[in-house]
Specification:
Length: 297
């Protein structure tokens, strides 16, 4: 009976020691077997593992893709316009042995803080080398790739693999919004003034061209009218000359009648002439009257 009394506790102790020497690794994690703080074995495959009870311990790390949101970061691009940037990174623990050596007992949270410092420094360096317009544009894939590539080497020293870095938000600080708005407004007003000036210049050229065209057309029309008038005058003079050569007296009579008609057209014409003036020759001369009757016949 006494022997059974000692046997049962011994079996219980052996069973407890046997159970404590067994551990299970989930497919979502990796495990390290430590002995007095030193790594003795890495268990990366899921399943059962064994350790020495009371001497060795098991530390587990997440094998899934992890996410880290960086705190808002203020950067100064190359054009000295300050921006507030929010970003996040996706990473994974790929080398648990190096990870343990780098962070010690600090674990995943301590590693995330160190990764956050790496990403913040790389983000400042990359975004500080470009203009704010490049950062604020929708096409920022190249910038995010540069930040990821720059952080890969530093993160690998922690046993981490940086998979992706994304910029979630890039905004101007509140104190810079009004100044930026006024600057954008001034730039748009300057562009509008430039467009108006170019439009006025084009309109002036068009008006000048139109005025020159008008002058050319009027000058050509006047030239043609003068040519036509000269030809008409020449034809008229020719007719007069022909009439004069045929009957000089009738020609003189006709010209006198036209002069009488023109001078007395309004009915109130006053003329101061000598009574024996040549102007009234055909009104006073019997010869003129006879010539007129002869010509009329």
């Amino acid at each position: 009976m006494a022997r059974a009394t000692f046997l049962i506790p011994a079996v219980a102790v052996v069973a407890a020691l046997g159970l404590s020497s067994v551990f299970i690794v989930d497919e979502r994690e990796k495990a390290l077997v430590l002995q007095f703080g030193q790594i003795v074995r890495v268990q990366e495959e899921p399943g059962l593992g064994f350790k020495i009870p009371l001497i060795q311990e098991v530390v587990r790390y997440d094998d899934r893709i992890l996410s880290r949101d960086m705190a808002s970061l203020e950067v100064t691009p190359s054009d000295d316009r300050r921006l507030v940037v929010d970003a996040f990174a996706r990473y994974r623990i790929v080398d648990v042995e190096k990870f343990r050596q780098a962070v010690g007992a600090g674990g995943e949270e301590f590693a995330a803080q160190r990764l956050d410092s790496i990403l913040r420094a790389e983000t400042r360096e990359v975004l500080g080398s470009v203009s704010s317009n490049d950062i604020l544009s929708t096409d920022r894939a190249a910038l995010m790739m540069r930040i990821r590539n720059g952080a890969i080497e530093a993160a690998s020293a922690l046993g981490l693999q940086v998979i992706d870095v994304r910029l979630k938000r890039t905004d101007l600080p509140p104190e810079n919004l009004n100044a930026t708005y006024e600057r954008m407004k001034a730039e748009r007003e300057r562009e509008a003034a430039d467009e108006i000036a170019r439009g006025n210049e084009a309109a002036q050229r068009t008006r000048a061209q139109a005025d020159r065209t008008v002058v050319e057309l009027v000058s050509d029309a006047r030239r043609q009218s003068e040519i036509i008038r000269g030809e008409a005058d020449a034809e008229r003079n020719g007719i007069y000359a022909d009439a004069f050569t045929r009957n000089a007296e009738f020609f003189e009579f006709y010209r006198s009648m036209r002069a009488y008609e023109t001078s007395m057209l309004n009915g109130r014409t006053s003329m101061v002439l000598s009574p024996d003036s040549e102007f009234f020759r055909y009104l006073q001369s019997d010869q003129g009257a006879g010539v007129a009757e002869t010509d009329g016949q």
